[in-house]
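Notes from the 1:1 (GR / supervisor)

We went over the backlog. Supervisor wanted to see one worked example end to end before approving the batch request, so GR pasted a single chain during the call. The sequence is below; no edits were made to it. Supervisor asked that the structure be written out right there so they could see what the output format looks like.
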Amino acid sequence: MYWMLTGFLRSLYEGMINFKLVGLEDVLYAITYSVLFFKVTLFCHTSTNEARSSSILVHKLLLEGNCRKECVKELKMSSFQLQIVKNEYNACGFFSPNLRLFVSVVSVNASYFIIMVQIK
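Structure output shown during the call:
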């Protein structure tokens, strides 16, 4: 995450400084970094949401009641495990890579970019 964010800002800065020479290449790198960061946060966000919805699906299957005893036993164990284990990604407990993080990072990067433009 850190690599993507610093690479994004460095590429924007280099693109702004050397825009006439190789600025377009740096801007493309910045776009690549931002797309990679978006993909990571989107995948973590959607997998967390899918894990939450799987608990609901298991409970719906249990409520239908048209399963064999072995199936009901497995569904109950799965339901118990899904209630205990929270499926969330985090970076060593510091933050969760989800879409909320992406939006806040985009706003911080926009602020840094505006500052860089004003300083230049």
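Supervisor's comment: Residues 19-64 form the longest helix (46 residues).
Batch request approved.
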